[in-house]
Design brief:
Helix content is 52%, strand content 14%. With 177 residues, the chain is α/β, with parallel strands linked by helices. The radius of gyration is 15 Å and the shape is globular.
């Protein structure tokens, strides 16, 4: 049987990667960044996968990498890509009982501010108006997988990580179970 894992989901620029590393270090477990693992598996950057193979192929690779991480024996904190909950099989696996899902939230205005210099690296965000659209499309998807919801607006990653750890412990997460 696989170990309990933590999957961090949320919109782009909610701080998933930074919080992932901080929470993993605090819990004394491994951290994994799903986009980096996908890039390694595909031998190309996420943007290039989208451009040359399309979103459907990207989601297939992403799902396979996610399942591999979640089947690992050692507990891991995983920074998921923002679109992970758009795939039904991912949702089923995240709700499978051995995964504690943390949804990091931020208001669209906060996301636009954080993404101001980074939007060209985000395949589904052609411009800042796409932030609002993506937020509306995905909000309900994050709700359906989340065990814990943590707002990140006006909070440093260290503060968010402290809140996440506290909420995980309160919801029953324990390393080594």
């Amino acid at each position: 049987m696989s170990a309990d894992h933590v999957a961090i989901v949320g919109m782009p620029a909610t701080g998933k990667s930074a919080v992932c590393d901080l929470v993993a270090a605090d819990l004394g477990v491994a951290s994994a960044h799903l986009d980096e693992i996908v890039e390694s598996a595909a031998a190309m950057p996420v943007e290039e996968i989208f451009a040359t193979q399309g979103e459907t192929r990207f989601r297939e690779i992403e799902s396979a990498c996610l399942f591999e991480l979640l089947d690992a024996e050692e507990p891991t904190v995983i920074a998921c890509g923002g679109g992970v909950p758009t795939v039904d099989s991912n949702v089923s696996r995240l709700r499978g009982g051995d995964v504690h899902v943390v949804w990091l939230t931020a208001l669209p205005a906060t996301l636009r501010e954080r993404l101001a210099d980074d939007v060209q690296r985000r395949p589904l965000l052609a411009d800042m108006t796409d932030v609002d659209r993506l937020y509306r499309e995905r909000r309900h998807l994050y709700w359906r997988v989340a065990d814990v919801v943590v707002p990140t607006d006006r909070r440093a990653p260290t503060t968010v990580a402290t809140v996440v750890r506290g909420r995980l412990v309160a919801s029953g997460f324990s390393v080594g179970e």
